[in-house]
UniProtKB/TrEMBL annotation, chain A:
Localization per Swiss-Prot or TrEMBL: Cytoplasm
Species the sequence originates in: Notoacmeibacter marinus
Gene Ontology biological process terms in this record: porphyrin-containing compound biosynthetic process
Molecular function GO terms recorded: 4 iron, 4 sulfur cluster binding; coproporphyrinogen oxidase activity; metal ion binding
PROSITE patterns: RADICAL_SAM (PS51918)
Identification of the protein by name: Heme chaperone HemW
From TrEMBL, chain B:
EC number(s) per entry: 3.6.5.n1
Name of the protein in question: Elongation factor 4
InterPro entries associated with the record: EF-4, EFG_III/V, EFG_V-like, EFTu-like_2, G_TR_CS, LepA_C_sf, LepA_CTD, LepA_IV
Any one GO MF annotation of this record: ribosome binding
Species this chain originates from: Notoacmeibacter marinus
GO terms under cellular component: plasma membrane
Lipid bilayer topology: Peripheral membrane protein
Entry similarity comment: Belongs to the TRAFAC class translation factor GTPase superfamily. Classic translation factor GTPase family. LepA subfamily. Belongs to the GTP-binding elongation factor family. LepA subfamily.
Compartments, record wording: Cell membrane
Length: 400, 602
């Protein structure tokens, strides 16, 4: 495909099914936001003057070409445009970067192409345009269906706008997901039951349900340290988590990852690549990539500052600030901590192939006896429901 | 240096409670006699260790020779021996005092007499000292010289009518102090310069350049460079290399005569070869009898010291060896613990001594240490008639083989504003104390208790300070060994005994101590995936129990492609942290938990 018109022609074709392979994804990071949300520690920047989108699009294209040289020809299984707020991108910008990705790698028919968007009406006006560039899955940052909580979370939209955006997106995109943040200050089990059921009623095929986390360097961190608000204590947070599993399972959107729920078959192909420890290239300010390189795995980390990234790409063809070649143990740790997040669990044979050793059999047996991990078939293990809610501790135990 | 007639020598020390201004007064005396130039002066000149300066305490005795021309035009030599004030060093203090004829009794003009002042002043009186009373900090608004004089007369029983008001800080009254030293303190008793050498070993310390330096007071005879001396207590002989005085810099004089205080070096390798209080004589022409009062140092409190990082064990071994070079009263032997690995069981003169050694190890040798709970020395009488000294609860023999156990008791004096007397009496009773005396001076009470040392080493002092808002002062001396109903309390975490936490306690205290330990550990051990019972037990019987509930939630909400690196690094840090934990079955206990659990409450 070479033009946005061609992409639009493929609208009716279904998105490819998941073959269970780790895959190879392309991640594109648009670093700008209209406002910084108080909980967010992602690489996002607010600009008073609108950025020169054409210049950024050209830089994305140039960096994609550099990445293609590093990875060699690969069969791409997904594209993800994240941010920041990608729905601040002009339709032409999205078209240009997707065209560039297609030029470099040749995007196969029917692959998942996701874009993140905010529900503000101004951005929703561009949904159809994005669809025409080939985007076939939209991920909306709804965050809550309660207006006061949206204001607490520093969101610029209200519930009415969010519902309208969801309605509209459902008619335009074959796949639709939205995010909610829960375990908010003052939230009760009853309140969350109502809100979550209402969210499922909106008939998206995928939900990302994140417990509110106080990240370093955020406005929430300062407010929380100053005791301006309190998070639910761990017991309630654990109960909210269990409730979430119960409701989503009953309503046909079971968890396939710690915080991600989907109708069977509607899992995010792109994100599965991260958790299955597949490969991906990262393009754009602050983007990370991980791909096979010289018999090992290479991590690329881009310059985070948008304009410095831009200038570097224009000067040397890429915005990479740091490169790391991972050792076997480092790869094994990453595979473990990513893989156990999945309901499908981790393939021990794959782990052993990468780590060059087996996974702490004695500790594994103990964790299985204690009910935090369970074997799945001959070669897989996964966290049980009890294990999932304390997964970081389980992983630390296994990795020690 | 021309020889000074005995009548023009004064040997004196300063007796004071901590913070009452002893070191500042010494600084002023040094300054106003011109012993050091202005640029050489710094605060607490005589306290050469960092710890001494920072904490405002004196650990090692030190001496300075002051040259003073009095108002009568005569030239005098004033030897000041600065002594440690703390009870842990009571023996060292007694030897320093024995080397002098008089003392300045320094009392803070607003705080008044404290328990420590009392213990030291009685020692001075025991040594037949003349006392010159000095009221310090007279310029502070809270000063009440008349009330304090009255208190001194009532509590100590000495005449305070001629007490000298001073401000060591501003220098006010210092000339009066110097005159009083000359006119009110006696000259040294007449010694015989031609008799065989008889000198007291007052103190010794290690100097990196000169080796062991010995502080001596000459009684009879002359001590000269080139002489071969003999330590009468140990029998060791040494050729004298240097003879001098401290001003406080060392100034070589070649010899010292009767009444004089000075220092010598004699190629002595270790401080342990010198015993405070020993008699030094000439090998060829020895004196007939030793000076009275010589006692070898006896450790009173023991604890285990372990490196936080097992790899530091050899460094710890070298460090304790080095400290021992300079402090013969500190003893050590190797110890192994299932919980803490390889370390040393160390003996100390008391709790302050223990704290100082620990601090010096961490500060001067950069070692991170875990100290086990301090324990006293128990005397075990076995059923087979044998006697065992128990320094470490972990070595406790099978109870059926023990006939009875004796523990050390102390006699403690506590002085306090009477507002706090009630809670203090309750504390002493709780700690198995037996009241011996209770008296009042104005609004201050002095109470004397017999207490088991075992109850005091735990957290007595901190509790005392906290219930009296810091106003009560406390001093003690060892009295005797008494039979007690003592049991070994073990601590079990997730059913596994933790050897480093076991202790000997009185049966009546076991439940309280056990509960305290379990509650503390519950706070200190991080939550695990499963619930953890924490128990204190005597033999097989659980006397206290807490349950640390299982972790409820610990999972990262968002983890995508850009998070893998950060999460991996976090995991690596966790793994690194786990290496520093001690494993008890499935339970990992951080080192920090041991340090905190074993720390006395504050």
């Amino acid at each position: 495909m070479s033009a946005s018109a061609d992409l639009a022609l493929r609208t009716p074709s279904p998105i490819n099914g998941d073959d269970g392979a780790p895959g190879f994804g392309i991640y594109l990071h648009w670093p700008f936001c209209a406002a910084k949300c108080p909980y967010c520690d992602f690489n996002s920047h607010v600009r008073h003057a609108p950025p020169d989108q054409a210049r950024f699009a050209a830089a994305f294209a140039r960096e994609l070409a550099t990445m293609r040289e590093a990875t060699g020809p690969r069969e791409v299984t997904s594209v993800f445009i994240g941010g920041g707020t990608p729905s601040l991108m002009a339709v032409e910008t999205v078209a240009a970067v997707l065209e560039a990705a297609d030029r470099q790698y040749g995007l196969p028919d029917g692959i998942e192409i996701t874009m993140e968007a905010n529900p503000q009406s101004a951005e929703a006006d561009r949904f159809a345009g994005y669809r025409a560039t080939g985007v076939n899955r939209l991920s909306l940052g709804v965050q809550s269906l309660i207006d006061t909580d949206l204001r607490f979370l520093g969101r610029l939209h209200d519930v009415t706008e969010a519902r309208a955006a969801i309605e509209l997106a459902r008619t335009i995109f074959p796949r639709l997901s939205f995010d909610l943040i829960y375990a908010r200050p003052g939230q009760t089990l009853e309140g969350w039951t109502t809100e979550l059921n209402a969210a499922i009623d909106l008939a998206a095929d995928h939900l990302s349900l994140y417990q509110l986390t106080i990240e370093d360097g955020t406005a929430f961190k300062r407010l929380h340290d100053a005791r301006k608000f309190r998070l639910p204590e761990d017991g309630l947070a654990a109960d909210l988590y269990a409730l979430t599993q119960e409701i989503t399972t009953t309503r046909g959107l079971p968890a396939y990852e710690v915080s991600n729920h989907a109708m069977p078959g509607a899992e995010s192909r792109h994100n599965l690549t991260y958790w299955r420890y597949g490969e991906y290239v990262g393009v754009g300010p602050g983007a990370h990539g991980r791909f096979r390189f010289e018999n090992g795995r290479r991590v690329t980390m881009a310059e985070r500052h948008p304009e410095r990234w831009l200038e570097q790409v224009e000067r040397v063809g890429h915005g990479t600030a740091e490169i790391e070649q991972l050792t076997e143990y480092e790869q094994a740790d990453e595979m473990l901590l990513m893989g156990l997040r999945l309901t499908e669990g981790l393939d021990l044979a794959c782990y052993e192939a990468i780590a060059g050793r087996d996974l702490a059999p004695e500790r594994l047996t103990l964790l299985i006896d204690e009910g935090f991990v369970e074997p799945l078939g001959n070669s897989r293990i996964r966290a049980t429901r009890a294990g999932m809610v304390v997964l970081d501790a389980v992983v630390a135990d296994l990795a020690a | 240096m021309t020889e000074t007639p005995l009548s023009h020598i004064r040997n004196f020390s300063i007796v004071a409670h901590i913070d009452h201004g002893k070191s500042t007064l010494a600084d002023r005396l040094i300054q106003s006699t011109g012993s050091l130039e202005e640029r050489e002066m710094k605060d607490q000149v005589l306290d050469s260790m960092d710890i001494e300066r920072e904490r405002g305490i004196t650990i090692k005795a030190n001496t300075v020779r002051l040259e003073y021309t009095a108002k009568d035009g005569e030239h005098y030599v004033l030897n000041l021996i600065d002594t440690p004030g703390h009870v842990d060093f009571a023996y060292e203090v007694s030897r320093s005092l024995a080397a002098c004829e008089g003392s300045l009794l320094v009392v803070d003009a607003s705080q008044g007499v404290e328990a420590q002042t009392l213990a030291n002043v009685y020692q001075a009186i025991d040594n037949d000292h003349e006392l010159v009373t000095v009221l310090n900090k007279i310029d502070l608004p809270a000063a009440e010289p008349d009330r304090i004089k009255e208190q001194i007369e009532e509590v100590i029983g000495i005449d305070a009518s001629d007490a000298i008001p001073i401000s060591a800080k501003s220098g006010m009254g210092i000339p009066d102090v110097l005159e009083a030293i000359v006119h009110r303190l006696p000259a040294p008793k007449q010694g015989d310069p031609n008799a065989p050498l008889k000198a007291m070993l007052v103190d010794s310390w290690y100097d990196a350049y000169l080796g062991v330096i010995v502080l001596v007071r000459i009684i009879d005879g002359r001590l000269k460079k080139g002489q071969t001396i003999r330590m009468m207590g140990t029998g060791a002989k040494y050729p004298v290399e240097r003879v001098g005085v401290l001003t406080p810099k060392m100034v070589l004089t070649g010899e010292l005569g009767p009444g004089e205080i000075g220092v010598i070096t004699a190629s002595i390798k270790e401080v342990a070869d010198t015993r405070v209080g020993d008699t030094i004589t000439e090998d060829k022409k020895p004196t007939a009898e030793m000076l009275p009062g010589f006692k070898p140092a006896q450790p009173v409190v023991f604890c285990g010291l372990f490196p936080v990082d097992a790899a530091d064990f050899e460094d710890l071994r070298a460090a304790v060896g080095r400290l021992r070079l300079n402090d013969a009263s500190f003893s050590y032997e190797m110890e192994t613990s299932a919980a803490l690995g390889f370390g040393f069981r160390c003996g100390f003169l008391g709790l302050l001594h223990l704290e100082i050694i620990q601090e010096r190890l961490s500060r001067e040798f950069d070692l991170e240490l875990i100290a086990t709970a301090p324990s006293v020395v128990y005397q075990l009488s076995m059923t087979d008639g044998s006697e065992i000294e128990l320094h470490n609860p972990a070595d406790m023999p099978d109870v059926v083989k023990i006939d009875h156990i004796k523990e050390p008791w102390i006699r403690a004096s506590i002085m306090t504003p009477d507002d706090y007397l009630g809670p203090i009496l309750t504390l002493c009773q709780e700690r198995r104390g037996i009241q011996q005396d209770l008296s009042y001076v104005g609004s201050r009470a002095m109470v004397v208790y017999d207490l088991p040392l075992n109850e005091v080493v735990f957290d007595f002092y901190d509790r005392l300070k906290s219930i009296s808002k810091g106003y009560a002062s406390f001093d003690y001396q060892l009295s005797d060994y008494r039979q007690g109903d003592l049991v070994k309390m073990s601590v079990l975490v997730n059913e596994e005994p933790v050897d480093a936490l076991s202790m000997l306690v009185h049966r009546s205290q076991a439940e309280r101590r056990g509960r305290g330990m379990c509650e503390k550990l519950k706070e200190l051990i991080p939550r695990h995936l499963f619930k953890i019972p924490i128990q204190a037990a005597i033999g097989g019987k659980v006397i206290a129990r807490e349950t640390l509930s299982a972790m409820r939630k610990d999972v990262t909400a968002k983890c995508y492609g850009g998070d893998a690196t950060r999460k991996r690094k976090l995991l690596e840090k966790q793994k690194e942290g786990k290496k520093k934990m001690r494993q008890f079955g499935r339970v990992e206990i951080p080192q920090e938990a041991f340090i905190q659990a074993l720390k006395m409450d504050s």
